[in-house]
Task: structure prediction
Amino acid sequence: MTVRWNSVVLLAGGVGGARMAEGLARALPSGSLTVIANVGDDEEFYGLRVCPDIDTLLYTLSDRIDRGQGWGVGGDTVKALDVLRDLGAPTWMKLGDADFGLHIWRSWRLREGDSLSAITAEATKRFGAAAKILPATDDRLRTRLDTDEGWMDFQPWFVGRHCKPKVKELRFDGAGDARPGAPALAALAAADLIVIAPSNPLLSIEPILAVSGLREAIASAAAPCIGVSPLIGGKAVKGPLARLMADLGHQVTSAAVARRYGGLVDAFVVDAGDRADAGALEADGLAVLSTDILMNGPPGAERLARELLEFALTLPVQPGRAA
Amino acid sequence: MTVRWNSVVLLAGGVGGARMAEGLARALPSGSLTVIANVGDDEEFYGLRVCPDIDTLLYTLSDRIDRGQGWGVGGDTVKALDVLRDLGAPTWMKLGDADFGLHIWRSWRLREGDSLSAITAEATKRFGAAAKILPATDDRLRTRLDTDEGWMDFQPWFVGRHCKPKVKELRFDGAGDARPGAPALAALAAADLIVIAPSNPLLSIEPILAVSGLREAIASAAAPCIGVSPLIGGKAVKGPLARLMADLGHQVTSAAVARRYGGLVDAFVVDAGDRADAGALEADGLAVLSTDILMNGPPGAERLARELLEFALTLPVQPGRAA
Result:
């Protein structure tokens, strides 16, 4: 199958986003995929900046990823973390030795005054990653959660407490002041297709859209925008999405996810089994692709990507929509 | 053999100093050894503070050391360093993964505002090290070398260039402003014996003595002070000492080393084979112990330590010398 896409932009969080990115990278001509990554999950550990979503994208797209768990470096060890534990430091965040190499390098470069965008671009190039990766913003943006145990930062809730504290509200600290990087805006303006990955809409995609001007840049782009559902039969493939949506009073359906992207998406990809969602979204005026959306390994991700790219050929480009 | 020593202070650099420290720790009652460590070799790598002499002491005294090479952590791996190399960072300093755990922790604590003394004391305790380890100073002090290739920092010369550039002059940057830590001064004042380890006098011991007031604190201490020669038959057991002394125009003998400590040492330990040095130093008025000074493994270090401690019983305490 050949496709005409030369400039695809993917909005992505971690594991699900990285799988979609890998599928698209395999399906597209080399150099045509740019991923705009969530930074709301970023955290400092021992003074080192960890960017879990960027890291998962970087490791997946450079084939360094631990395929079993979907994050971290394959075959990594935890000697540094063991020493930190011996020294009495908190070690609930599982940072491997190879992983620390990246965090050390990034933190060093940040302290030297380089931007996260420039650092990520260099890492992408040095690792030979199959796509460009751009942080949604170089400014500080942090997802925080109001829970039944009070306000928490994202990683202490997600990893430290295994998502157990019930969430009442989400906040993206700094989003009002955070500006998208120039390369992200340029990529969106030049895109011929924009894809929203099957990442957690509340925790991965919305922190990207919360960056000042990014939502508008997508809404005004000429390229069609397709979202992919992170739910199959009302269940998330991975992660706390279903419970989080329910806790926050949302319907746990693909249609509900698509509607959160109202005004952005022209089309949505739902699982073949979710017929009611497909019907509801078509009634909303969206184009819908119903197919098997489970990405089973890189070939499965590539299969979904090819179907999505083929389907996207049927969508109208809206050159007049661009500012 | 029992000894009466309850409070011994050792001045030490890296590998040779750590061997002497281990021998003394094995020979002395628990809790009676304090090591004042050189920090002139300290360096920042990727924004992380590495203290090679403190680390070697810490790893040796907690039995984590790589016994084969005398530095670093036994069985350590270099996954983080491999990633740093992939990312284009200079990686001539061989920092292992477990080793990085300590550097990450120390750098984090320093940025949080803790002193190197407090951090080192906590690491010593957490690692269960067999002696207290105190940095000679918490202030910045760096050994720099004027070479036939210009001025160089210590680690780039020592590790980066394998000591190849010929040294014309040594300088201890910051020594004039650096103050000893209060615990180091207290340990010297309370000591019943002071030992200068068979470390490199020019690169390990003199940067300690260059700390403002430290030389005076030793000179005015009531405790006798014994030095141990780092040379056997004019050759160093390890490291660049012999060539460095020759390059700087010094005689490469145990007597020449002892004379650099003039006004500090009451006694000196030389190798049994170095009879001329023993005679010369006795003529200088020093008490001399001539014995096998090669520390072959921890039992060999303990044997030398016991001989030294026994010999030190013959030295007069000078309570009147204390200020």
Notes: The radius of gyration of chain B is 19 Å.
